[in-house]
Amino acid sequence: GYPFVGDSVEAVVSAHLTHTLIPIGEARTDLPPAVADWIMKLLQRAPADRPQSAYAALDLLRAASAPQPA
To answer: What percent of the residues of the chain are helix, what percent strand, and what percent coil, each to the nearest 5?
Structure first.
């Protein structure tokens, strides 16, 4: 599925403009929650809210994929 959906072209454009996303965890329930959160961080509208480099994004993915202590 697409991150922006709507019943018409206008609704999809509006979703883009208002940055109304379907959380990936709802569309892909097979993803671990930490990975779904990582993907949503990459999709943030404001550049300051996204990782500042590919290296930073990779570090976040590694952290999200690391086994969590019990």
So the answer is: 55, 0, 45
> Which of helix, strand or coil describes residue 65?
helix
Predicted pLDDT at 69:
72
Which of 49, 48, 30 shows the shortest CA–CA distance to 40? 49
> Residue 37: in which H helix or E strand, if any?
helix 33-42
Of 63, 27, 61, 19, the residue nearest 44 (C-alpha): 19
- The residue length of the chain stands at 70
**pLDDT value at residue 19:** 67
